[in-house]
Amino acid sequence: MEKVTVPKWSLLSIYEDFETPKHQKDIDALKAGTKQVSKILQESPASVTEKAFWLKRVLDSVNTVLALNENLAAFAYTRYSTDTRDTSALRGLNAIEEISLDVQAVSVGLRNRIAELLSDELQTVLEAEPLLQPYAFIISEMIEEQQHQMSEQEEALAADLERSGGEAWGRLQEAVSSTISTIWNEQTGERKTVTELRALAYSADRAIREKAYLKELELWKMYEVPLASAVNGVKGSAVSLNKRRKYHDSLEKPLFQARITKKTLDSLILVMEESLPMFREYLKLKASAAGLEKISFYDIFAPVKQNSKVWSFDEARNFIIDRFSEFHPGMGAFAENAFSSAWIDALPRDGKVGGAYCIGFPLQGESRVLCNFDGSLSSVSTIAHELGHAYHGFILKDEPPLLGDYPMTLAETASIFAETVIFNGAMVRADKEEKIVVIENFLQESTQVIVDILSRFYFEKELFARRETGELMPDELCSMMIDAQKKTYGDGLNADELHPYMWAVKGHYYRPELAFYNFPYAFGQLFGLGLYARYQTEGESFRDMYDKILYLTGRKSAGDVAGHAGFDIEKPEFWRQGIAVIAGFVDEFRESLQTV
User: Is 65 exposed, middle or buried (CB count within 10 Å of its CB: 0-12, 13-18, 19+)?
Assistant: First the structure.
């Protein structure tokens, strides 16, 4: 087997360290910028012309502040997430969080002043200054969000307390999940981290998968009390703040952040639920291929063929660049630059957080991608997924932060579309035996994005409901998770071997600023499949359309962006089209099993 040489990223083009002049200069500029915004907010423009001029000045100043803040925060988090034991990184993260309190304060003040000055004549003011036109949707959002703000003093206190509350609980989960380990081999003393144990879910050896699964559960059991305290802390503070901000329920704010309507979410969830029998059929086909009556949770990612290809990182790199280039030469060139410029940290190691993410640095117009490469086709797809996010950021790199801030629903559309490009490229090049592996990888990922995501949605909805009346014990959280998995996976999995600790595994539950970090993935996959179908019909002419869709994500609702592509996302029929694509591959998977 070819040795896998896996890279770490370089941050030198961003900042060399926390104590360098360049870093300090941006810190000073951020502090000065927040003071300038505060000063402008104190002004009292009277006429329409004065208000337009005032609004342009304040938005320009806010954009400067947001870019600096995002850059500094991203640097601190990239340093911390690759080594959660790095005390200098933690201090740097804490320092920018403290400075960010002033950024949050001016954001609150901005929404208050805009609501006060412009609510009754917004359109007139916007028409008075052409450069303000692109901000129409964003300003309307600010006015709507202002209706859910507490007083400026209460918002300032909430932001300050969040650092030692929800954010600290989130860091606890990251620190635990990135460092805990257990003995794997009693004779040699070899240890494996929980991230390494989870990676063994892709092993062709069922005994290894089961052993890793059981040891993983043992680890989570050992740390269930602090992690239960953490998730109770995050959701408890969210419940309290949602009430004070007068949100009707736990979903109202996430829907606003996702820029979708309740009707859109209801249609999406309905179609996901309709699709469950089809996914259960796929899981049964997988069980049959493995000679099992039913597969268990630790079999979900098992290769359907024992000799599945192990990718070197160079092979993954070249494959992604080539497939992106076939779809869109500009996207391929972007990916090549990301690889050659050391934007990707793919080497798994102790202290590094699990999973994957993409993060942007607006001052440099660059991104960084973190993942944990293991040589599987799935990990190749993960790199493509995160580079899809990075390309999205590239399309918007010249936009000011207020016009480049897009919702997670549309973020996941870009990333999962990139995965679809990779999948279809692999399908075209696969021979008969390889094709079944590629199809099965696609169905594995689709099962996660539809079935498992639905279980996480059910779990989080119940978690919020029950957290309103008190804290939940670890056994309650485990029981809720098992119930959610049974509700979605149904008879597709062995009900005695599910994963009760997925609430501890997924860091998404521990993000205080963004609840329901689940349904946007399903949105992204099915929307992305719809876009790819357009590409297959239109060919090269779709490239400009795709870039335009990504460009619009920062200045329109998800419904309006979808409408630009000719989709009505409030109707179940749209989502059923994406499910039909997946169902077609289930049929092809069945046929492939019969002929192999």
Answer: buried
Domain residue ranges of the chain, discontinuous segments joined by +: 21-160
- Helix ranges, 294-347 (H): 313-327, 329-340
Percentage of the chain beyond pLDDT 90 is 88
Return the residue matching tokens 């993060």: 359
The amino acid present at 408, given as its one-letter code, is: M
β-pairing verdict for 344-345 and 357-361:
unpaired
Spatial CA neighbour of 349 closest among 164, 122, 86: 86
Question: Can you give the pTM of this predicted structure?
Answer: 0.90
Q: What are phi and psi of 568, to 5 degrees?
A: -115, 100
Task: Taking residues 68-75, report their average pLDDT.
Answer: 98
First to last CA, the chain: 25
Which residues make Cβ contacts (< 8 Å) with residue 587, sequence separation at least 6? Answer: none
Q: Cα separation of 389 and 311, whole Å? A: 22
Judged by DSSP in three states, 31 sits in: helix
Helices (H), ranges, 396-518: 408-429, 432-447, 453-467, 474-489, 502-505
> How many residues are given for the chain?
596
Burial class of residue 330 (count of CB atoms within 10 Å of its CB; 0-12, 13-18, 19+) = middle
* Residue range 438-455, pLDDT digits in tens: 999 899 999 999 999 999
C-alpha 78 chain-centroid distance: 15
DSSP assignment of 125-194: HHHT-GGGGGGHHHHHHHHHHHTT---HHHHHHHHHHHHHTHHHHHHHHHHHHHH-EEEEETTTTEEEEH
Q: Are 148 and 141 in contact (CB under 8 A)?
A: no
As given in the structure block, the two tokens for residue 50 are 């004065």
Whole-number Å distance between alpha carbons of 573 and 29? 50
**4: pLDDT confidence band, cut at 50, 70 and 90?**
very low
Q: What are phi and psi of 192, to 5 degrees?
A: -135, 140
pLDDT digits (tens, 9 = 90+) for 561-571: 999 999 999 99
Give the CA angle between residues 359, 363, 369 to the nearest 5°.
20
Contact by Cβ (8 Å): 8, 345:
yes
Q: How does residue 15 score in pLDDT terms, banded at 50, 70 and 90?
A: very high
Strands 344-345 vs 366-370: parallel, antiparallel or unpaired:
parallel
**Residue position matching structure tokens 């870009």:** 414
- The first and second tokens of residue 450, run together, are 């539809």
Q: Give bridge partners of residue 193 from the DSSP assignment.
A: 181
Can you tell me the distance from the alpha carbon of 253 to that of 514, in angstroms, rounded to the nearest whole number?
Answer: 9
Q: Check: CB of residue 266 under 8 Å from CB of residue 570.
A: no
Residues with Cβ within 8 Å of 201's Cβ and at least 6 positions away in sequence, in order, are 209, 212, 213, 298, 300, 301, 302
For residue 94, the tally of other CB atoms under 10 A from its CB is 16
Closest CA to 592 of 466, 357, 434: 434
Q: Quote the longest CA-to-CA distance of the chain.
A: 80
Q: Which amino acid type is present at position 472?
A: L
CA 146 to CA 193: how far, in whole Å? 44
Helix (H/G/I), strand (E/B), else coil: 359: strand
Residue 480: closest CA among 498, 493, 468: 498
21-160 is a CATH 3.30.565.10 domain = no
Q: Hey, which bits of 1-89 come out as E strands?
A: none
In this structure, what token pair is assigned to residue 575? 């989502």
